[in-house]
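Schema walk-through. Below, the input block comes first and the output block second. Nothing else is stored per chain. Lengths vary across the set, and this one has 422 residues.
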Amino acid sequence: MKRVVITGAGAVTPLGNDAPSTWRALCAGRSGVGPFTLFDASSFPVRIAAQVRDFDARKAIPAALGPGRLGRAGGFGVAAALEALRDAGAGPGTYPADACGVAMGASVGRPDLQFLVDIGVLRHRTGRPDAFVRQPPRQVLTDNQNLPLSAVAQALDARGPAIGTSTACSGSGHAVGEAYRCIQEGDAELMVAGGHDSLTSWCDLLGFSLLGAMTSEWNDDPQRASRPFDADRSGFVVGEGAVAFVLEERDRALARGAPVLAELVGYGSTLNAWRITDSPPDGSGAVQAMEAAIAESRLDPTAIDYVVAHGTGTPGNDLSETVAIKKVFGDHAHRLVISSPKSMAGHLTAAGAGLNLLAAIGAIRESVVPPTVNLDTPDRRLDLDYVPQRARNRRVSAALVNAFAFGGTNTGLIVAEHPEDT
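--- output ---
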């Protein structure tokens, strides 16, 4: 199997509109959570979110790629992918077009929920079952989750594998993992991979609230709302954004002098077959995904220094993940450092695993582990080292990146320092 390295990274997140500023904010423990501003949420049970701010897709994306058609999440995704390509020093002609591909995780394309409600209201008021609210034809493209993927392919002139994943909160984990497989198996020499999402419509916010998945206890103190692993955690905070990477076949990347950020060495993907929204209390599914990734890496579990946790801040998920980590690592679990970027950036849903991978790469390169902020009150059932409140200087040679999603999908990625850097 061919070896795979990461040569570029890009990001648009509530912590910054590029990868370096996002990484610096993670290390500083700065929260991106604030009052919700995309619509009037004053009557909602949850009125806070981690939003991307001061981002203009028309400035970040060339006009030829149609930034006006991409939608909010798609704009984030294409901008992050373009940054990753610049970071890698890659573009059209770096490799043959049919050796380049794109894999992106995103929420499934769907019409705007307000549009559907407007149709329902109109039909109720008029009594006409065929009444319809007019919408521009181009809206069909804006609602399509594959349009951003196609725009990235156009920017790269990529004519190889194209993979769109819609596996909720593990979407970018699957995208990176499947891109890794494409290069391993010789189907591509370069893949742009990551995820983008923005589940910030009124219906998204209300739906998550009614599910009981989001915290409604910190509307007046939003920066303290996302509390993974804390005894007072009460749900996640919705976020939005995108994170993308350039993956390359190692020997070809070295031959062209590409900057190697880290090496991907393992990928695991499983399904819980348990419940739609709950994690199994015994950690199964997550255990198998982590074990599969570690097995493929051929690393001893004790060689892994850092687990970038899914860490949503929901009572059940954090407990299930802790149980799973203990089962996978045994006594070594108490020597690991574990942290959750969601404590600062909220839950980027389909882009969440991408943010976790960015944190892992930064920790490997700079020997700094971002903290889990807002971990004020220890939970006696959660007794591992979650790096509370402040970043920690620590050498990291290998990290496990977790992502677990609604629907029961799980991914684990193992990323390690590249031997040339040791």
